[in-house]
Amino acid sequence: MDENIIEVRGLKTYYYTATKVIPAADDVTFSMKKGEVLGIVGESGCGKTTVARSLVRLINKNTARIEAGEILFDNMDLSKATPRELSHIRGNRISMIFQDPFVSLSPVYTVGNQIAEVMRAHSKEKIDRHEERRIIIDLMKKVGIPSPEMRIKDYPYQLSGGMQQRIMIAIALACRPDILIADEPTTALDVTVQAQVLELIRDLKDEFQMSVILISHNLGIVANMCDRILVMYGGAVVEEGSCYDIFKNPKHPYTRGLLKAIPSLSEDRDELFSIPGTVPTFTVPVTTCRFADRCPHATEQCRCAEPELRDVGPGHKARCVFADREWD
Amino acid sequence: MDNREVLIEAVNVKKYFPVKRGWFERGERKTVKALDGVSLVLYKGETLGVIGESGCGKSTLARVIMQLVPATAGEVYYKGNKVTPENIMQFRRQVQMVFQDPYSSLDPRMSVGRIIEEPLRVHMKGLTAVQKEEIVRPVVAKVGIEYEALVKYPHEFSGGQRQRIGIARAMVTNPELLICDEPVSALDMSIQAQVLNLFKGLQKELGFSYLFISHDMSVIKHVSDRIAVMYLGKIVELADKKELFDNTLHPYTKALMNAIPVPDPTVESMKADLTGEPPSPINPPKGCSFHERCPYATARCSEETPHLTDMGNGHMVSCHLCHGAEREVENA
Ligand SMILES: Nc1ncnc2c1ncn2[C@@H]1O[C@H](COP(=O)(O)OP(=O)(O)O)[C@@H](O)[C@H]1O
Ligand SMILES: Nc1ncnc2c1ncn2[C@@H]1O[C@H](COP(=O)(O)OP(=O)(O)O)[C@@H](O)[C@H]1O
Ligand SMILES: [Mg+2]
Ligand SMILES: [Mg+2]
Q1: Which residue's CA is the closest to the ligand 1 atom numbered 11?
Q2: Whole-number Å distance between alpha carbons of B307 and B322
Q3: CB of A183 within 8 A of CB of A104?
Q4: Does the ipTM surpass 0.95?
Q5: Does the beta carbon of A48 lie inside 6 Å of ligand 1?
Q6: Which residues of B touch A199 (CB under 8 A)?
Q7: Looking at the complex, does the CB of residue A83 fall below 8 Å from at least one CB of chain B?
Q8: What's the rounded Cα separation, in Å, for the pair A132 and A130?
Q9: Mean model confidence pLDDT for chain A
Q10: Which CATH superfamily includes the segment(s) B6-104+176-188+201-331?
């Protein structure tokens, strides 16, 4: 449980548009222990998906470039891996599931075929047809698909959103990966179905002894699922800590503000705390604290240079010069 | 509580959509029962929240009340008068709508100034430019958009600002009621709080009533005075907010509440009480439409359709198990 399964150091992924360069992931550093669930949380555009896709180099070379960084996984630096090595790692060792299962699934093959294809692509020995069918039905059962013997012949459009996402999970798990990256896996689903799918991910994580990187904009989900959490803002990690620290002892004004901005089910407040302004997109180079323009505590100091992500407690880091102060 | 003025009353409203039939399909023409007998009352000055999962009929309810689609059956009354094609223009001036998507609900080819004035062109024809400015200026100030920015086009604004523009457009005819269909669902968390504060502030200042639709229970709880819970084209529970939370009756409402992920690691939440997903509204199950997913369903639930029944204090629920010996009030 103590060894790091993956270590990311100084990852920078920039998007190049006609007029500007966007630091979508800017000097992102983190590590994850075996069996851990790591959450990446933040509002849309903060760089969550970019980080996830950069890990397995699934980014479009025409618009984006990994500028720097090491991604250490199993004595290998994925940032230097060959395309062959990468395609072996993707699917075999690190699998991804995305927000919208319908676009990730092929409309013209049955779900059984799609699971089989992944198994064939990634298994070393040849499996005979009967054995393959048995494994697929087993897997479909595992992800909670009722009567898999019938569903195996279904096309994606014949299944509900929740069932499609279960198929995606089955595909992602077909090769028993070490790491599952789940990028907003339940954002397209209703809350009662979301609870089922997240419970499934939690159970399978234990059973398969996987580590999970769970990406979500929903603070409630990461609070329920994660051991450790990265909070991102404008391409940078602004706070990192245990789930408890992030929710019970947040140090960055952005984290604190977000927590106060969500309407609470347990107490009634007439007015919500709100973070002024809009969610920004930055261009390189960034020379201020990214949150300074919206921060109630910002001073000149915050606008002179971007603060370091520094220790504010055991296993707890924040990117704010005032993180030690007691606000409120 | 019953001396409150009733703004809207919907009586047993149904909306069935025909389903396209395949070339060779025979037999009975199928329909989607998007709304299957919804009755509700909305009082002046209150916020009635409507919650339910996707496809349960929330948007259809909004559109039928707004008369944007004709109801298959049932009536809508505004201050006691039935809304008809003859008085619809008057109704639409008093009841305006705010939509979910701040991107597609604003015409990209119009300046936002023109967009905001649009209802004036429809409902208050013949205003001069000066008169329009007199109306629009204070409205945009209230929603927090600069008057000088109105020459710009929607794409030049952020999502939160566009939603403010949508709210301004709904406000210019000085309506009494705003029907808001998922108005903050597309917004980021920090922006959502700003817009929710705006809704509440406008209500305090101008006395608006809201029919506020959302799939997010924390949002609904924050804005509402009373809450209606929908499932498969029907209201299954309706009560004052506090009552609904303190004394939840319907098994579906309970499951919905338990499923919400609470942003606090020391609180147990996000429980998967239910299996499966809502059945198709094309072939809703016989009896109680929730019985197939209900952990407590009995034989009666699969046979007999329950009706929305007042259990006291205006707490209405549609569930045989909750009704027990209570008297059932048949729907009109
Ligand atoms: N294809 C693209 N071209 C240009 N910019 C992009 C592209 N994809 C993402 N970005 C930019 O990168 C930033 C991070 O995006 P993303 O990683 O998708 O964020 P998140 O997943 O947190 O919503 C955004 O500000 C966005 O503007
Ligand atoms: N124009 C339409 N034609 C056919 N079916 C429709 C139409 N509009 C809505 N529906 C169906 O009616 C049901 C309720 O939809 P809707 O009111 O949009 O639900 P909600 O807003 O709660 O998600 C859904 O099953 C939907 O597919
Ligand atoms: Mg994303
Ligand atoms: Mg809707």
Answers
A1: A24
A2: 11
A3: no
A4: no
A5: yes
A6: 270, 272
A7: no
A8: 5
A9: 93
A10: P-loop containing nucleotide triphosphate hydrolases (3.40.50.300)
